[in-house]
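User: Hi! I'm working on a homework problem where we have to compare a predicted structure to a textbook description. Could you give me the structure for the chain below?
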Amino acid sequence: MKYQIDTIPVWEALEHGGSCMLCTLQAKTEASEVERTLGASVMEPEVRVKTNEIGVCQKHQQMMFQFGNRLPHALMLDTHATQVMIKLEKISTLPTRGRDLDVNKIAAGLRALIDGCIVCQTIDAHMQRYIYTLIYLWKTDTKFQQTFGQSNGLCIPHAAALIEASEKQLKADKRREFVALCFELMQTSLSSDEADLQWFIQKFDYKNKELSWGNSKNAIERTVNRLRGYCLGELPFEKPKK
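Assistant: Happy to help. Predicted structure tokens:
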């Protein structure tokens, strides 16, 4: 394992102290990939061919648009849309009369045009590596094991991914220990989030108007992110200063 390439981002995410270190890694990777796709890579032949063929999903199109780099976005869309039109022409020539009309085949062909995302594929590849690295560090690095055990927890989706990956990376006894830890981290943190959520609700009772909000003001965001993975609230990583 190349220490700097594979372990430093995982350590940095853990030391960031967010509610789920894998959400931190994913959000940071996602922002980086969106920026890279709209940067120099838009002119790289290999990347351009893949982007033309696969396209970009709704979520990452939105992120690209918000990024504000309109020209490379337009260039990418132009060549991808050209590929889509060629494929649409082929789909439109399917039999369209009488009993030969296969609407399911036509619909499947249309859905195939929008099922892929080059950004999602790249992020997934990075996340698989980070998950492997996290388990490797937990297995081999006492300091990491201790720090991870004292962290702010995991979201349910990433806990599931870690537990699934542990089957190939850990022996039975260590796997049981690791799975138990994942559950402990999830349950402890979700219990805390839910207690804050309850107090957030109670604060709307006029009798509690003068009482402190405590840690409850962002309880909705934290609870949603814990249940479904990061999607609400502030970014779970610090943007580099320009």
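For your comparison, note the following. The first helix runs from residue 3 to 16. The chain is about 70% helix and 0% strand. Good luck with the assignment!
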